[in-house]
Amino acid sequence: MRSLRPDHQLTLLKGAVAFFPALAAAIDAARTEVRLETYMFHFDYSAVSVAEAVERAAARGVAVYVVVDGVGTGEVPAEWQQRWSRAGVHWRVFNPAQGWRVLLPKRWRRLHRKLCVVDRTVAFCGGINMLDDYFDPNHGTLAEPRFDFSVRVQGPLVADMLDTMQRLWSRLQVAREAGRLNVGAAVEALRTAAQAGTDLADDTMMKTGDRLEPARPRGSMATLVLRDNVRYRRAIEGTYRLAIAQAKSEILIANAYFIPGVQLQRALLRAARRGVKITLLLQGKYEYFMQFHASRAVYGPLLAAGVEIIEYEASFLHAKVAVMDSENGALATVGSSNLDPFSLLLAREANLFIRDDAFAAELRTHLMDAIARQGRRVDPGAHEQRSFRPRALAWGAYGAMRVALFLTGKRY
């Protein structure tokens, strides 16, 4: 399997306020090709700047391909369908699901990763949707910005991101042509999908025994770790567990929907027993019933083991990031994957794992600042003594989640 690879130039971007201008600038500078994938694309407020950059790029002859998720985004609004069509933008909707069909287990497989590649030279990977920091589709205007991160990437991993995006586009073309009964076009799209890029297979991280094996250090060292339902079913969870096993003194995880499975919980508990300081920055502001309450069902054993849990209450915490130390230096991850069964078992996800002390220190500073200024520590005693109602909500939500997973045939 592949090692962490050197020669990367990485820029950490906090929030849409930093991400959208950087993304729009890269798209505006595009000369040949733009590929963009996202779960949510809302065509309003600050996210319009990205939609307009996509439109401008296609209008000047750049090949532009956009994929949005069928639940997170749904249909591209009619106005933007017309504008993008006039400009020449190519777009697809992944696994469309409307009305009662969204309840079907086969429709629960979502495109949750947030990737963009421009001219095969610069890329973006993280957790930020095309959604304004101060707006939520279900809750309206937010008093404080959403807490999330993305990374601007130059270096070898750009080709890996391009490869996985080309593969998805080709598969969507197969489905599109098959739906039209265009057998010849479907066969050609299938051939293209089979030949696109290099075979990443499961080789997103080098192992030597139970070690992440670094390559020779030049620039930032990084690797792209994917999760899908074919070749990368357990890659992100496995990489987290491996990094946790290597941590020497500190693990700092910020995750929006934190409902780890048994193996991931055991990895954290083993780290706590060997004296690693573990801090979890989790969502404290109610967003979705199941994720909010089910996460609290796993607090007990972690708190009892000495894990510190901080709930972020200023706004919605949407980040999926972590910083961990090891004998090889600090390891950070930034990406789209939550540590819950829907991300780890059902969705297409993408995380960067980065070995770079300066990058990790910058991310850690942001997290520690959020903990100090906008977090509330969960008191183990108070959690143990909480009343019947929050206990019932937690275990009811956790049970509902397990039933939902049973319907998909997955085990967690």
Can you offer a commentary on this structure?
- The two termini are 25 Å apart.
- Residues 196-210 have low confidence and may be disordered.
- The chain is built from 13 helices and 19 strands.
- The protein folds into two domains: 5-195, Endonuclease Chain A (Endonuclease, Chain A, 2-Layer Sandwich), CATH 3.30.870; 217-408, 2-Layer Sandwich (Endonuclease, Chain A), CATH 3.30.870.10.
- The strands form three sheets. Strands 4-3-2-5-6-9-1-12-18-17-16-13-14-15-19 form a 15-stranded mixed sheet, sandwiched between helices. Strands 7-8 form a two-stranded antiparallel ribbon.
- Helix 4 runs antiparallel to helix 5.
- The protein is α+β, with helices and mostly antiparallel strands and 412 residues long.
- The chain has helices spanning 15-28, 48-59, 78-87, 157-179, 183-195, 235-246, 262-273, 289-296, 299-304, 341-346, 357-374, 380-384, 388-408, and strands at residues 5-14, 33-38, 63-69, 90-94, 114-118, 122-126, 135-136, 140-141, 149-154, 207-208, 211-212, 220-227, 250-255, 277-283, 308-312, 320-324, 331-335, 349-355, 375-377.
| Helix coverage percent | 25-40%
CATH arch. level architecture of the largest domain: 2-Layer Sandwich
Instruction: Give the CATH topology of the largest domain.
Output: Endonuclease, Chain A
What's the pLDDT, averaged over the residues? Answer: 89
Structural class: alpha+beta
Low-confidence stretches: 196-210
Instruction: Order the strands across the largest sheet as they lie in space.
Output: 4-3-2-5-6-9-1-12-18-17-16-13-14-15-19
Distance between the termini: 25 Å
Give the radius of gyration. 21 Å
Q: Any idea what the CATH superfamily of the largest domain is called?
A: Endonuclease Chain A
Largest sheet descriptor = 15 strands, mixed
Shape: globular
Percent in strands: 15-25%
How many H/I helices? 13
Return the domain count: 2
